[in-house]
Queue: 3 jobs
Job 1
Amino acid sequence: MEKLKIAGGYPLKGTIKVSGAKNSAVALIPATILAESPVTIEGLPDISDVHTLQGLLEEIGGNVTFKDGEMTVDPSSMISMPLPNGKVKKLRASYYLMGAMLGRFKKAVIGLPGGCHLGPRPIDQHIKGFEALGAKVTNEQGAIYLRADELRGSRIYLDVVSVGATINIMLAAVKAKGRTIIENAAKEPEIIDVATLLTNMGAKIKGAGTDVIRIDGVDRLDGCRHTIIPDRIEAGTFMILGAAVGEGILIDNVIPHHLESLIAKLREMGVPVETGDDQIFIGKSNKYKPIDIKTLVYPGFPTDLQQPFTVLLTKAEGSSIVTDTIYSARFKHIDELRRMNANIKVEGSSAIVNGPSILQGAKVKASDLRAGAALVIAGLLAEGITEVAGLEHIDRGYSDLVEKLNGLGATIWREKMTEEEMEQLKSS
Ligand SMILES: CC(=O)N[C@H]1[C@@H](OP(=O)(O)OP(=O)(O)OC[C@H]2O[C@@H](n3ccc(=O)[nH]c3=O)[C@H](O)[C@@H]2O)O[C@H](CO)[C@@H](O)[C@@H]1O
Ligand SMILES: C=C(OP(=O)(O)O)C(=O)O
């Protein structure tokens, strides 16, 4: 097991390149199950979620190659093998195996998913969608059993706007008989990316990226080549990092339109932001204004950037409020930031940040992926050395993070944890 060590307090400068989107990758890879010939996806991030999904596709008989960000999946020999736990629990997005395997084989047994612990993360809307398409769904000892004689298109209204349910229903519906309409669908860019892949495979989908998606089922899907979109959350993390410790940082391979809410909030704080076609420049700030943030579904401020943004707010003079309306308990990073001398308190679904604080290096633990990103930014900002444990969370979503940050002039490295540290981590 490894930890990250960061020598903080030094300004960063230069260009940093964004990788392919994790939340697209984890849906695009399961989507390949639906094809009857090889599918190639270009630009995938080198993250553990992608490797775990590769292993899961291989477990069900897929022939997968993955090199230099390009994955080719030959799904022709796949079978509906039960995947009750093990790798399935390592990531949230293993739930996409339910929709994809149901769509292709009309049956699947998949363990309940893992992923970041952000409070309750039910999948009732996914199941409601599968049932509306004609599947019988049961939960037996922590695994979801799905079976259908035939999948039939249906009108499905989502009670909660859910990224996962929208994509999962799309996966199950593309080969169903007749028309499926998803109402109150989520509108995240990753949904458009998955719909683009499926359309190139031969699916008939209209309205992805709006709140009504219409899918006309087809009998057969075939292979194609697809390039993934850039990761807006990784890009956003680098923008926040640039605002906190940068003296001019250019973020390359980004779609600025995907980050309008973050750009607006950074400008409101007084951070200079310039946008190009596929680049964003974050200038050096001299003074940071306190502001309030409320997370919302896309195109609102993303919950996945709330934790990193909290760190930036410790630099502002005055009081800022961060409210998470998607995951009201997504504040496990706050105790760790307090160890580093931040003045933040949590009240209900809000964190109140009183700044400015001079952060101090400390030994901290990432409880989840974006808590990890927040602690890395805090470590770069802090005086002295910061040690971040829980690296396995960060490795789920940030490709080559150490190399990328060192390229900006940061001093950050991975180090093996001692036996004693691992014991302490287990008991904490
Ligand atoms: C792999 C992936 O893409 N993960 C993202 C995805 O997670 P995920 O797809 O799990 O998140 P959802 O959009 O489904 O969740 C949004 C809200 O709806 C609730 N809900 C969801 C499904 C359901 O059946 N019932 C229900 O009540 C959730 O508890 C949450 O409060 O979107 C989240 C919200 O943008 C992001 O934080 C995650 O990074
Ligand atoms: C919550 C996240 O991921 P997951 O849904 O995969 O746990 C995230 O990417 O911030």
Job 2
Amino acid sequence: MHYISTRGSAPSLDFEGVTLAGLASDGGLYVPQEWPRFTEAEIAGLAGLPYAELAAKIMSPFVGNSLTPDELHELCATAYGRFAHAAVTPLKQFDEQQWLLELFHGPTLAFKDVALQMLGLLFETFLSRSDAHLTIVGATSGDTGSAAIDAVAGRDKIDIFMLHPKGRVSDVQRRQMTTVLAPNVHNIAIDGSFDDAQASVKRMFNDSDMASSKGGRFRIGAVNSINWARLMAQVVYYFAAALQLGAPQRKVAFSVPTGNFGDVFAGYVAAQMGLPIERLIVATNVNDILHRALADGDYSAGTVTPTAAPSMDIQVSSNFERLLFDCGGRDGRAMAEQMRSFEADKAMQLTNAQRTGAAGLFTSARADADDMAMAMRWANDAAGEIIDPHTAIGLFAARQSDVSADIPVVTLATAHPAKFVDAVERATGTRPSLPTRVGDLFAREERYDELAGDYESIASYVAERATESR
Ligand SMILES: Cc1ncc(COP(=O)(O)O)c(C=O)c1O
Ligand SMILES: N[C@@H](CCOP(=O)(O)O)C(=O)O
């Protein structure tokens, strides 16, 4: 399998290459040269497999020759062996149409673990084949940071620098990052939003003093969903859920609380692979750039508004570029031009081809604070389920949608409610407890540095602490 950049001019790479590269050297995102496709019979043959085995089958065409089948099986067994639920991503029923796919049974209680447990192992495997050292630079609005740190803390040949927006993540999210005291973990709180952090991360990949791909001193790696391997691992749970609900004979719709568009793009990939997905519902909070883009073609970023679903407080949604590239005819040169204009103006219009292509599968909805609280109360009243604010946004959108009554609608439950206790208590009157597996989180020492958030301060902070590797 080969991967090409959405902006057309970076070299094409194999799976090992894209996993270590993160962002393409032309600033674009890597996508498979073509989508692997399963027949209906092949999909039917996946029903009933244990999660780790299903994962290996789904990932195999993307991995190509970069891992042997035995290596891939072993990595999947190790990654998903760390989950606290035997089903890894269990499915629960609300009523005749509405379902919940719980993605938070990993070590850090959010869906990010599903991909990052795998990515940590992939990094280790690929780095063991050379003497390279990887300097991971990541941006988080709370969940990617803790999941990535858990996945790479203490590993040889990796340093991780994680930027989070100061004061804009929950206490549990911050402590899950800052109480990990392994010497290869560097937490940085910046003044600014997730978008500011993500912009600095992308800039570092293009910095000729920093990035070895541009002649600089460090091999910069990515744990955000700009890294293709993140999305690949997330495709698996769409198959897992749909198979349980009757696919391939029956269609299924998904409602996905969305920020950086990674999770829902993984659903799009599942559909390209042949999974019969009726609809992907993109659910946003009031930071609704994706809702506006899908509804009206208006992709224009405003200022980020802090909400009770902080992990979705995002306006510049990296993976949307992958969708626009694929739906717009895979024209790298045109995509590069469109993104250059977005980067300059923070606004762009989708082309007709992009709008029509997206409309075939996606709809969208926007939830405000009241919508979110109402969905949390409904989940509690209808099924005794306490859900987190991000999941509530997905559930609100799922219940609002006009998907035909005979098609199941699965809301992705992206985080454990105890990560956002205050918002959950405000809406439902219940204060969820942290699962025992997170241990004495509030008794542990925290360590992090604070930076102003300008690119130069971040780059010099990294340069003083990272290991040179070309
Ligand atoms: C709990 C939670 N829900 C939803 C999202 C949105 O996911 P994505 O950025 O893949 O769209 C995030 C962060 O990304 C998150 O942490
Ligand atoms: N919500 C995320 C933001 C980063 O998104 P990613 O999926 O691209 O890593 C977070 O919690 O950090």
Job 3
Amino acid sequence: MKHILVIDDDPVFRLMLETFLTKNNFLVTSVGTSSDALRTIKKTLFSLCLVDLRLPDINGLELLKEIKNLTPDLPLILMTSFVDVRTAVKAIKSGAYEYITKPVNTDELIIAIQSALKSDNKVSKETPSTEDTSFYHYGRSKSSLETLKAIELVAPTNLSVLINGESGTGKEFAARLIHARSKRNNKPFVAIDCGVLSAELGPSELFGHVKGAFTGAGFDKAGHFELADGGSIFLDEIGNLPMEVQVMLLRVIQERQIRRVGAGKSQEIDVRIIAATNDNLKDSVAKGLFREDLYHRLNEFSVSVPSLRERKEDIEGFILKFMKDANKELGKSIEGFSEEAMDIMVKYSWPGNLRELKNVVKKTVLMTDSTGQSVVSPEIIPYELRVSPGISSENTFGGYDLKAASLKQEREYILSVLEKVKYNKSSAARILNIDRKTLYNKLKLFNIEI
Ligand SMILES: Nc1ncnc2c1ncn2[C@@H]1O[C@H](COP(=O)(O)OP(=O)(O)OP(=O)(O)O)[C@@H](O)[C@H]1O
């Protein structure tokens, strides 16, 4: 029986989850604070962890990092309100497997749990073949075509590639395409998130270790570079690589050799490096946080993956692609989105890019009844999207949907107060009689940027 750890400070919600998960044949332990969570994780082997992003004693992202340090392979699913979607996107980068939004839809929860348990959710994933990317949709906008052209140009070479782009735009997808179109495509593609590599464990994760190299090194272990030999290694979030590990990586690139931690001898290695970042690495170089020599080694060729805002004309195509995938995965037969629903989707700003789009499409497919006229209607689309700027027609609020209408009013009222106080958030919060944190959350929810 799979053992799930639930971390949430709301006792009623915990009880509800416990009851639901137990009914679905899971063994459940639940805790209300992060300190209890960490203590429990040290003592028990869990198959999966459900984490609320807002806990009283620690920032959810910090907790994620601590859990990842303790148990890098434990799949984590975040539970968050829509207000937190941006944070959830960050959390995915820090190693969470998936996020689901509150109020939790139980069907969605079960699907997320099953798919997290199926995936090995290791720090690295190997793709030995091209299957992932052999049939793909890349969009037809000018910026998408430019990216695709760059990918196709560089793929057959052995150049190191640095992929830039916001979170969730498809940098890893681009890396997989590059590998798939290279001569190395019958060899492994190994992806690793540098954000989870600490200065202590990073060298052993990347380059392996020999038995007894450090406390806890009970056996010889190959690192990701060895696993990728002959193929490509994808170093995601390269900007997060600790300085000590940057030095070691540079040496490996220069010498084309690796040495397992604690080993006496080096070994030859043939790995193509594809790195990705959503920070401005040049800035990090200027600030002395990233080595300039390493930057140039990694950036022999650069590929920029555009945000969804820069390729709005592609949104519809991606929606249909993700809808088809979701139909297949969920056993549904949704045929499309109504015109109004599509309009909302296209106008939204998608801060989480393709990842957020894919998530929302999957959710709407799940919630749409596939009997009768199986088209996604506006009421199914999450409120956050419906109240975002640029969307104002009555229909986009689902016609008679009272909650969406009042959210719209709330947004307009907040904007008018902000204008009155010349965008001073403290004054606005005082007038609105809410605390600053609540105001910040509402600004995020309503996509109000000041
Ligand atoms: N061209 C594409 N066609 C279909 N799906 C795509 C495409 N590009 C990206 N995706 C999907 O969008 C999601 C986000 O992509 P990916 O993980 O590659 O983004 P990323 O930029 O690497 O994110 P992060 O910065 O958070 O690491 C994934 O589920 C991926 O499969």
